Amino acid sequence: MQKDKKIVAIGDLHGCSNTTEAMLETLESEFGNHVFYVFLGDYTDRGTNSKKVVDQLLEFNHYHDCIFLRGNHDQMLLDAYEKGEWDLWLSNGGETTLEDYDSTPSDFDLPKAHYDFFNETQLYWETEEYFFVHAGISPDLTIQENLDSEYEREQFMWQRSHIYTTNNKWDKTVVFGHTPIEEPIIKNNMIGIDTGCVYDRPGFGVLTAILLPDNKIFQQKSLDV
To answer: Would you say 41 and 55 are in contact if contact means Cβ atoms under 8 Å apart?
Structure first.
């Protein structure tokens, strides 16, 4: 990987394959393989084409430098598949993914390539300027203090408190998804880009990506809801 490449971060996809395809085509046309692509997690659930989204990402990864972060939905899928912990996942949209894989809790037919994809997702990725994570990190701690705490690392997939604060102790800009917002957050060492592409509600239904360090926003209206 070339350190001088710019970065494109992409928000939560949630099984929206048509929207994902349109966004990837836009980014391919704009940047090709000349940037890093950082996907912020939550590739499945709630949308109706989770399996296809994973196939799309696996294909895209063949020709581009990609980082795939782990979201809370990805962790819930793994916990269900590996440990039989079904209730939390199924109550948070997992039933749509299970149906898409033509599976049941007693027989989850998850292809090995897809299991490997989820299992190899990263909790975070950082550069000299940015810290990428699915949900966020505690604003009351430095980035290193967050990393040093086992509890806080677990919260990287669930954290929301930073969104409601005006100050933080971070020495880098934290880039995250997870919490649906009507407009991207670009402020005070934080960038949030989950604009709820899977939700058919006023103010949402948009997939957002951002080019860094330019802070150039790319958005695709949902083609799935």
So the answer is: no
Model-level pTM? 0.97
Which segments of the chain does DSSP mark as H helices, in order?
17-31, 50-63, 72-83, 87-89, 95-100, 112-119, 143-148, 150-155
CATH number of 45's domain = 3.60.21.10
Q: Could you tell me whether strands 124-126 and 65-68 are parallel, antiparallel, or unpaired per DSSP bridges? A: unpaired
* Cα–Cα distances in angstroms (integers) from residue 33 to residues 2, 17, 113, 220, in the given order: 11, 21, 23, 20
Give the SS3 label for residue 100: helix
Q: Is the peptide bond before 105 cis (omega within 30 degrees of 0)?
A: no
| Residue 59 is assigned to a structural domain of this protein | yes
103 in any annotated domain? no
Reported as a single tens digit per residue, the pLDDT across 57-94 is 999 999 999 999 999 999 999 999 999 999 999 999 99
Q: What is the pLDDT of residues 95-145, one digit of tens each?
A: 999 999 999 999 999 999 999 999 999 999 999 999 999 999 999 999 999
Rounded to 10 degrees, the C-alpha dihedral 172/178/183/189 comes to -10
| pLDDT at residue 4 is higher than 90 | no
Q: Domain residues for 145?
A: 6-70+124-221
